[in-house]
Amino acid sequence: MQPINRTRIPKPRIVGLVVLVGLWVMFAVWQRAEHVHQCRLIHATLSSQGDALSTAVSNSIQSHRWFSPFVRQQLPSTLETLARSTNVLAIAVVANGNVEQSYVAGDERLIAYELPVGEHVVENTLQRVREFQMQNDPPMPGGLSVAMERRGTESFRSVVVLDRTETMSQFYLEARSRILIFVLGTLLLASIGAVWQFTVRLAQSEGKTRLLTAETRHLRELGQAAAGLAHETRNPLGLIRGWTQRLVDAGLPEPDQQEQAEAVIEECDRVTARINQFLAFARQSELQIEAIPMEDLVAELKTLLQSDLDAKDLDLETVGLEVQAIQADRDQLRQVLFNLLQNAIAFAPEHSKIRLSMRSSHSGTFRIEVADQGPGASEQIVDTLFEPYVTRRPGGTGLGLSIVRRIAGAHDWDVGYRPGDGDGSVFWIDGIRGASTVSNGNPMASVNR
């Protein structure tokens, strides 16, 4: 199976993310356009009111034949009536461009006479300015000459001032509504995206699970086949070694033949030892958990390895083994410590010290460390120390540390390597539970791993 590149985002996720971002942008643009449209409608309502009032003012004046004293007298009351309409702050009519001849209803201070014709927003007001004319057609009394003198065109300007406070409130409510809709829409899109991503990941996880299950089954079958082959290989090896040993014991006619026969026996023993190591690595044995005094177990191992220690004049120092008993499978823990100590002996320089220590760890469990004063592991192989058939020891098989990791995993322990404080190597096992810890929790007689 190819390794998974965790830094690369899968293509379906990129496409889905682009689609969601595109939908989100389209939704935001749509809500923005709707907000602008609604604001225009709200403004148009107020603008229509101003236009209607200015039309009413012009019609009230243009409905007369001429701008007579009677019209001038009635104009203020007409403006007062119009000024009582909703949102109206002031109304003014200026005759012939002379502000002094203006007629005003409402708050005159709000009126901006200098504005051009059209619609203008001044602070919180909307001012509608309109110009119109009326054709004077006075009656005939006083003579034709007098009537002709009064004929002509008069120009007027009307200014309607409307309050925009209510309109601004409607703008605010509209903006708040659009923001709420946008937020809810964003949450909905995010939820849809999350559900889609979860569905994609679930499908990918199911595919990976099926692939890993098939690969695990294949590796298990391959391991069983290899273990069976190794087991069957020991039988002919034993037969070869037995017959060769009989020849050696009987004596061969030539010294060269005797030496070659002894070499065959030595190679058979070596291959058998390698097969036994492989079977120890591949075998999934049942754990027999019990309380183990570390002092007694290490004393047995020291006796077993004493000849190797004496060969290099090494001193095995133990620290903290008297703390308390631990919970483990005795034979497998013995195998772990044997492999680690044998590895330390192989790399420790002559006349040096090997230290086996046990202490409490931060999690309330125990930690065992085996330290030597050898050269240490190079950075190139640190990450592969516990992989099968990776070795830095001449003549080694590369299965010793792999067996350590497999046994540690079966016990739910952590195993690792770190450089020594000054020099050398330190192999550690962490997560070892004490006898009292396990007995008070969930005691186990045996665990089938």
Automatic annotation (TrEMBL):
Entries under SMART domains matching the protein: HATPase_c, HisKA
Secretion signal span: none
Keyword match Ligase: no
TM ranges: 12-30, 179-200
SUPFAM superfamilies for the chain: ATPase domain of HSP90 chaperone/DNA topoisomerase II/histidine kinase, Homodimeric domain of signal transducing histidine kinase
Molecular function terms from GO: phosphorelay sensor kinase activity
Domain of life from the UniProt record: Bacteria
The EC number(s) this enzyme carries: 2.7.13.3
Enzyme class: transferase
Domain named Histidine kinase: residues: 228-429
Pfam families xrefs: HATPase_c, HisKA
Keywords: Kinase, Membrane, Phosphoprotein, Transferase, Transmembrane, Transmembrane helix, Two-component regulatory system
Catalytically driven reaction(s): ATP + protein L-histidine = ADP + protein N-phospho-L-histidine
Alphabetized PANTHER family for the sequence: HISTIDINE KINASE 1 (PTHR43711:SF1), TWO-COMPONENT HISTIDINE KINASE (PTHR43711)
Stated name of the protein: histidine kinase
